[in-house]
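Thread: "does anyone have the structure for this chain?"

Original post by V.I.:
We have the sequence but no experimental structure in hand. Need at least a predicted one for the grant figures.
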Amino acid sequence: MTAADILTLIPAAVGRSTLAFCRIIGSVAIFALSTLSHLLRPPFYPKEFLHALLHIGYFSLPVVGMTALFTGGALALQIYSGGSRFNAESVVPSIVAIGMVRELGPVLGGLMVAGRVAASIAAEIGTMKVTEQIDALTTLSTHPMKYLTVPRVLAATLAMPVLAAIGDVIGIMGGYLVGVTRLDFNSAAYIKNTYDFLEVADVTSGLWKAAAFGFIVALMGCYHGMRSGRGAQGVGKATTNAVVSASVMILASNYVLTEVFF
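Reply from O.Q.:
Generated one for you, C-alpha cells below.
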C-alpha cells in the first residue's frame, strides 16, 4: 500500500462515518414526523395509551423521587460549601430551587426515565418483532405505529412534566431538609427565600423541557425497537442503543432549549 493510498483511507473513513450519521438522523426525523402525523389521525387506542401512561408515569415515580431527593440534598451541601468561601451561604435556598426546576429536575428525571422506559419499550417492541407479532398486527389491518408507537410517545410526553414537577418539589424538599437539619438554616427563612426567588418562568421552562424529554425517550425506544435485529442479540443491541441515544439526545436538546428559554 502506497502513501497516497494511506492518505485516502482517512477522508474515506470520515466520509463513510458522516454519511452513516446523516442516514441515522434522517431516519429518526422521518420516524418522528410519521409518529406526529399518526398522532393526529384516527383510529386511536385509549386502552394502550392508559396502559403506557401507568407504566411510564406512575411506575417511574419512585426512581424519579429518590433521585430528586438526594440530588437536592447534595446540591444544598455543595452550594453551601462553595458559598461559604464568599460569605454567601444565604443563597443556598434560592440556588437549590432554581437549579432543580430549571435543570436538574427535568434532566435527571429524563435520564432516569430513559434508563427505565426507553430500555423497556425497545425490549418489548423488539421482542414483538422477533416473534413476528408486529407482522401479525399488519395482517389484522392494525398499523403497528398507531398501536405501538403513538400511545407510548403521547403517554411519555404527558407524563414527564408531571414527573418533573413532583421531582422538583421533592428535590427542593431534600435541600430544605439538609439546610435545616445539617446547615442550621431557619426553617421559615429557608422557605421564604425559596418562594421569593423562584419565578413562574423557571418552573414552566423546566416543564416544557420535561415534555420534550419524554417525547425523546419514548421515540427512541420505539424507533430502536421497530428496527431491532433478529434474535436475542438484536433485541439486546436495540435496548442498549435506545438508552444511549435517548440520553445523548436529552443532554443535547437540553442545551438547545436552555438557549431558547434563557
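V.I.: this helps a lot. The two ends are 54 Å apart (CA to CA).
O.Q.: and The mean pLDDT is 88.
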